[in-house]
Specification:
By secondary structure, the protein is an alpha/beta fold. The chain has helices at about 5-15, 20-35, 45-55, 70-85, 105-120, 135-150, 155-160, 205-210, 235-245, 290-300, 305-310, 325-330, 380-390, 400-405, 420-435, 450-460, 470-485, 495-505, 530-545, 545-550; strands at about 40, 85, 95-100, 125-130, 160, 165-170, 175-180, 190-195, 220-225, 255-260, 345-350, 355-365, 370-380, 410-415, 435-445, 465, 490, 505-510, 515-520.
């Protein structure tokens, strides 16, 4: 029996604890094994890479110098990655995403695979890169490779340390560390790249350029291995969603292989029998006792809990200081196709004219306690263009405004300012094009002038505009109610990524009486405008609740 069969069958049968996504990928791999199509499984090729690693690679830290003995889960994954080939013995998979808890041996495994790809992959002049957002992180993998080389008489005979790389004179290839200074990435000819801690990378273009730099190779491999992280709506979330879509049949890419080790539910985090779902190296590589200590500390120290959930169990979270937990923001409920809303309550946050602006329409149906959101955002086009023209690839505020515009979540306004008339135009658009009439609109009076207020009243009535003063007296209790509704999945944002980003960025300050009000975090790029527009609308909805229900 192959390692592949032994391990993935054990996951499906429940002999080894596994999350739903790992069971799905196990079924896929075994189906491909037993019913080959364009690609078949070649055990000799698969085992060649494992044999090379265990014969020539040594442990780079801890028990330094000991032969590197791969665990069953590592051997099975490597057989799946390298063993499926076409009739010309070219690999099926050119991209692998591994999400696993920290301290499961990923740095050592990556280093061994890189050395194998440098020497044992039958590629001329292979360029192998260790990529990370910080040079220190990229250097960790590079240094592990160097230690392995120094401990092997045969490897050190063929691989020499130069100023910036490990050079293999036998085939003119090299291994190099590369940080996210993307201006130096154009023109690369990459055979393999390891992106360590994908979840820490804010710059999506780093991934894109690495991927595009592999086009001239016969069988390149992009090897992403990471824990979950605290950066939401970045490249990690995008790749995670793509991997999930493949596993659930919503997307098709036969060349992409995901291994996602995570808990199935956040409630499993303190159940020891579930820990191996997110930690395949538990007890053999990662100490179970140490993980137990981390969980106990997280129970006593609430600020430490998000770190344990994210890094040990791969449960998505935002920062510990955030007002809402990520699981409170995440809501997969969608607006029903037959909703046919006729009346709504509006909310809007008119930020400085050069920044993000947001508006919300809060809608309900008779006999349904959910609050369904329609939303729109605006940004000056020049603000986006100026940032892109500066040569910075990651996008203004480290989020994909241009993509959100293309997807219809955001509109841009010509010039360098947002004319607040866009708010009125949007509410009129809902009325005239969707037959959705706005009864009341909550707004922060700080950024709304009298002339715009008068125009709103002419369109929607003298009593339509409700000022919402920004302070604990006005905001505290409604925010606490709103959080409870978010936690119960009653506020449906239709999985709008801008909404989720803004809500994840919101922090609160608490006064001596326990009253709260929202604030931005220390990073001014973390916009909260969408959350503020929602709060303004929510306050008006609650204040006018009986009247609104009588109308709908």
């Amino acid at each position: 029996m192959t390692y592949l069969e032994e391990y993935f069958t054990a996951l499906i049968d429940g002999k080894i604890p596994a999350c739903e996504k790992m069971k799905l990928v196990s079924e896929k791999i075994l189906e491909d094994l037993y019913n080959p199509g364009q690609y078949h499984f070649d055990e000799e090729i698969a085992s060649r890479h494992i044999d090379f690693i265990e014969k020539f690679c040594k442990v780079p830290s801890g028990n330094v110098g000991a032969p590197l003995k791969l665990e069953l889960f590592q051997k099975a994954r490597l057989q799946a990655i390298f063993g499926f080939v076409d009739d010309n013995n070219l690999r099926k998979y050119n991209e692998v995403l591994i999400v696993e808890g920290r301290k499961n041996g990923k740095t050592t495994e990556c280093a061994a695979v890189e050395i194998d790809m440098l020497i044992d992959d039958e590629e001329g002049a292979p360029q192998i890169y260790n990529v990370a957002t910080q040079r220190e992180q990229a250097t960790l993998g590079f240094n592990a490779c160097h230690k392995m080389v120094k401990q092997s008489e045969l490897l050190s005979r063929h691989i020499k340390k130069r100023a910036v790389d490990l050079y293999c004179k036998m085939n003119y290839g090299y291994i190099k560390a590369l940080a996210s200074n993307t201006t130096s990435l154009d023109g690369l000819d990459i055979h393999m790249a390891t992106i360590d801690e994908l979840s820490a990378i804010k710059n999506r273009d780093l991934y894109d350029l690495i991927k595009q730099a592999m086009g001239a190779r016969r069988q390149p491999l992009l090897f992403c291995i990471t824990t979950n992280g605290f950066i939401r709506n970045g490249i990690f979330d995008s790749q995670y969603q793509y991997a999930s879509d493949i596993l659930y049949g919503k997307a098709k890419n036969e060349r992409f292989l995901p291994f996602i080790y995570e808990l199935d539910n956040i409630d499993e985090w303190d159940k020891e029998e579930c820990w191996e779902k997110a930690n395949p190296g538990l007890n053999t590589i990662k100490s179970k006792d140490y993980l137990r200590q981390m969980v106990l500390k997280a129970k006593d120290d609430i600020s430490f809990k998000p770190t344990v959930l994210v890094k040990d169990f791969n449960m998505p979270q935002n920062r510990a200081s955030s007002w809402l937990k990520w699981e409170e923001i995440e809501n997969h409920t969608r607006i029903p196709d037959d909703a046919n809303f006729r009346y709504c309550i509006g909310g809007m946050d008119a930020a400085d004219s050069i920044d993000l602006n947001a508006a919300k329409a809060l809608c309900m149906r008779p006999g349904d306690e959910h609050i369904y959101l329609k939303q729109m955002y605006w940004m000056p086009q020049e603000a986006i263009d100026r940032f892109e023209n500066s040569g910075k690839r990651q996008g203004r505020d480290n989020v994909p405004y241009a993509l959100w515009k293309d997807q219809g979540y955001l509109r841009t306004v010509p010039g360098n300012k947002v004319d607040k008339q866009v708010f009125l135009d949007w509410f009129c658009e809902l009325r005239d094009e969707e037959d959705l009439y706005t009864l009341y609109i909550g707004y922060d009076p700080w950024h709304i002038d009298d002339s715009l207020l008068a125009r709103f009243k002419r369109e929607f009535g003298e009593r339509s505009m409700i000022p919402v003063r920004q302070g604990t007296k006005t905001l505290s209790n409604p925010m606490k109610e709103m959080r409870a509704d978010m936690k119960n999945g009653l506020i449906v944002h239709n999985e709008n990524p801008v909404d989720k980003w803004c809500l994840a960025n919101m922090e609160v300050v608490t006064d001596i009486n326990g009253n709260i009000q929202p604030v931005k975090g220390l990073d001014a790029r973390n916009r909260i405008d969408g959350g503020m527009a929602l709060i303004d609308g929510y306050i008006v909805l609650k204040n006018k609740y009986d009247e609104y229900l009588s109308v709908i």
